[in-house]
């Protein structure tokens, strides 16, 4: 499979500047998040079919392969800001999808371990991230409710879930270091964005913030070949 990386163009740069201005108006203040989103061409992650200003509409999620979505820019910015990332932190991401969120985390100097359950999406995005030279992104195929077998016993500074989980997966909380943060949309019909501060090993020491409504494709069990 060959990877198509279309060149950036002045019009895309202008659309990104406008997107970032809107994100600021909507309460995104983390400069590192804004800089990463200003820099990274979003059209690299959706293929040839969509090279439109819609890509840079802060509220527009778009369909990608396997009936999945690339999260809307506002959601990417919001979830990333909630992580309070510092350089070199390890992040476990559930739902690689297009790889856009993964690349934003890489631009912020995180080391990213990202999992996708759809094999075609996994293969395509793994190849794209490698072609873009994001060597600190590690892609896995699986359902990730308990992490991935390849990284057994590895603990992460942050966990970011980009699909709607039925409940907070205990297997994922186990992989989060004490002092770490998980950002996760939870719920079936109606989802809420939760931020969980793991202040100790026991669930009684997990401080949960409910940050409002969320809307993501569901987090499903099993991988899909
Ligand atoms: N971060 C992605 C969002 C993709 S949508 C982006 O910006 O493009 C969420 C993705 O989660 C979908 O690709 C879906 O297939 C995947 N997914 C759903 N359940 C999963 C699971 N249990 N483990 C891993 N990936 C999962």
Describe the structure.
β4, α5 (119-131) and β5 form a beta-alpha-beta unit. The chain is 28% helix and 24% strand. It has a domain at 63-214: 3-Layer(aba) Sandwich (Rossmann fold), CATH 3.40.50. The protein has helices spanning 10-25, 31-39, 73-82, 100-107, 119-131, 170-175, and strands at 62-63, 69-70, 90-94, 111-116, 137-141, 156-161, 176-186, 191-198, 206-214. It has a 7-stranded mixed β-sheet with strand order 5-4-3-6-7-8-9. A two-stranded antiparallel ribbon has the order 1-2. It has 225 residues and is of the alpha/beta class. α1 (10-25) runs antiparallel to α2. S-adenosyl-L-homocysteine is lined by residues 68-71, 94-95, 97-98, 100-101, 115-118, 121, 143-145, 162-163, 217, 219-220.
What is the strand and helix layout of this fold?
Layout: H1 10-25, H2 31-39, E1 62-63, E2 69-70, H3 73-82, E3 90-94, H4 100-107, E4 111-116, H5 119-131, E5 137-141, E6 156-161, H6 170-175, E7 176-186, E8 191-198, E9 206-214
Bound molecules: S-adenosyl-L-homocysteine.
- Note the run of SSEs as H and E: HHEEHEHEHEEHEEE
- The fold-level CATH name of one domain is Rossmann fold
Largest sheet: 7 strands, mixed
- In CATH, the homologous superfamily of one domain goes by the name Vaccinia Virus protein VP39
Question: Can you name the CATH architecture of one domain?
Answer: 3-Layer(aba) Sandwich
Give the number of helices. 6
The Cα radius of gyration reads 16 Å
Average pLDDT score: 94
Q: What is the strand tally?
A: 9
């Amino acid at each position: 499979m060959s990877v198509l990386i279309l060149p950036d163009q002045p019009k895309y740069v202008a659309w990104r500047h406008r997107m970032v201005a809107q994100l600021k108006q909507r309460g995104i203040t983390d400069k590192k998040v804004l800089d990463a989103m200003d820099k990274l061409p979003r059209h690299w992650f959706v293929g040839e079919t969509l090279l439109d200003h819609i890509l840079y509409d802060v509220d527009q999620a778009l369909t990608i392969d396997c009936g999945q979505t690339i999260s809307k820019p506002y959601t990417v910015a919001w979830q990333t800001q909630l992580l309070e990332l510092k350089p070199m932190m390890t992040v476990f991401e559930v739902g690689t999808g297009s790889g856009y969120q993964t690349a934003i985390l890489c631009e912020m100097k995180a080391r990213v371990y990202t999992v996708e359950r759809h094999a075609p999406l996994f293969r395509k995005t793994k190849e794209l991230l490698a072609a873009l030279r994001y060597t600190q992104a590690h892609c896995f195929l699986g359902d990730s409710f308990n992490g991935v077998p390849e990284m057994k016993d590895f603990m992460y500074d942050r966990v970011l879930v980009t699909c709607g989980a039925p409940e907070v997966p205990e297997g994922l909380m186990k992989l989060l270091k004490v002092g770490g943060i998980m950002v996760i949309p939870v719920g079936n019909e109606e989802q809420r964005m939760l931020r969980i501060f793991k202040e100790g090993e026991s669930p009684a020491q997990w401080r949960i913030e409910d940050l409002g409504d969320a809307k993501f494709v569901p987090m499903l069990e099993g991988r899909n070949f």
